[in-house]
Amino acid sequence: MLPSFKIADKGIFFIAVTQFGVAFSNNFIMVFMPFYILKISPFGPRETLLWIGFILGGTSIATAIFSPFWGGLTARFSPKLLFERGIFCSAVIILLMGYTESVYLLLLLRMTQGALGGASTIGLILTSALSPKEKLNTNIGFFQNAITAGQLLGPPVGAYAAATLGYHLPFLLAFLMLVVVLIFCHRSVRAIPPQQDPPRQSATLKKEILVGWFLCFIATVHLIFLPSILPRILADFKLTEKIALNAAGIIMMAYTAAAIVGSYILCNIAYRVGLKKIMTIALSMASFLQIFLIFGHGFWSFTAIRMLQIFFIAAAFPLTVSFFARSVGGKMIGFLNAARFFGNAVGPLMATSVLAYANLLALYGIIAVLTLGSLWAFLTLIKTGDEPCSVQDS
Fold it and tell me: Do 116 and 226 belong to one domain?
């Protein structure tokens, strides 16, 4: 149930709605993008698998590289203007992607989309600036839930649209979705002045944040690596293309729902049992279940294991951010947020590259080992006490 908003929070609500539209549109096309690439690729199976990784990961690579630049521009230009610009450019590029049948041009468009992106970071800046101090946690939580809702609803709707309408028209539908939310954003969100840079952090804190960054990164890899190799996995289940499309949407919807539940439950448990203990349990279980995916020999068993794995890994990002939120400014929170962009980029690239030359067990094992390594580094380096699972105003 959505929280109630006063008139003063109208802009906060529509920032979240706009971010929902962005997440929905991106995941709407992401679910059928590997199938689309398979259809238009002139290359063989192995080369095409690599192209899928490059194209799906290209946007996030560019976003991760250019995001600090766009975030820095909020100190000189209106964050609202930058936010709207990013969404409009993304909408136009999505429309163009639907009318190209060249994997080279598709990769270029995805990279351009990423270079002009970073809307979620600017959305967080807008939300923070427009929120009174006592409502900052609630408003940021609502913003993040809007993103998750878009990630939840986009895949099954996109899979159904592609299976029903083909691969071209859904790109137009995603474009129209972004245009609609952009209009609401422009009419309802109040402009704010450029934001000043936060004070500089100590060298020790910066080292700790780097460890937290890697933990956020590998948690995102867990969440994002699967869609790029779902055609391969579902082919092993002997599903036809149309059934596989719908199955991919259902799997992504199911484990995104598990992410919402897991994040909520584990963040609340962390208050009582302690942050380090819950992080150890959650990440250890996620690593075990990651390898255990190899025993998912059918649609239902694979989906059930994936849901359990995501249930445990989903809280890693908010728990890590909450640990640092009391001692760092918004710029460092943005740096931690950038770990998600890198994870979004590396996840598909890692999955397709490893699978092209090895097997699923090798892929699952690499992700599990990296997860346990990042957990060990985090617990070794971080010496301070537990923080509650909420982002505080620093």
Answer: no
